[in-house]
Amino acid sequence: MDYSPESLERLGDWFGNHIETRNKNHDELTRENDSLPQWFLQHGDKTNWMLTDQTLSLCVDIGIYFGEVMRKHHPVLNWDYVKSGRKFVDYNRPVIAPITGLIERMCPQQVFVLVAMKCVQGENAHEAFRKRWMYWNNLMIGAGGMTSSGSK
Length: 152
What we know:
By secondary structure, the protein is mostly helical. Helix content is 53%, strand content 9%.
């Protein structure tokens, strides 16, 4: 792995063959139904499956690598963690910051949990990794951040 955008695509090819799911058990489905608002239960996109712990662990590792690729190509970025707001989705998780504009930070782990879920639903992992790189890279460049070559 050389921290290049192309290495992310190769990682996507590998990851696509290692995503695993399992069916939610009765207790998990009940807890989910009890915790979600009624409007979501009626109109939301619920699933009866979830990613395995092994897949979630891979999402953490891949997220760290993705964050390092971003930092290599955009030296203004740093690792941080959200220190306040216990109910905030990224509380106590590693994040990349500052991103730009309305998006203050990115939680790479969560990015790849969503990628894994999309792949389970049919998205090509290679393409998913390429799209995520393009999105976050272009967001940095478009906001006047450091470019991929490291110049402003």
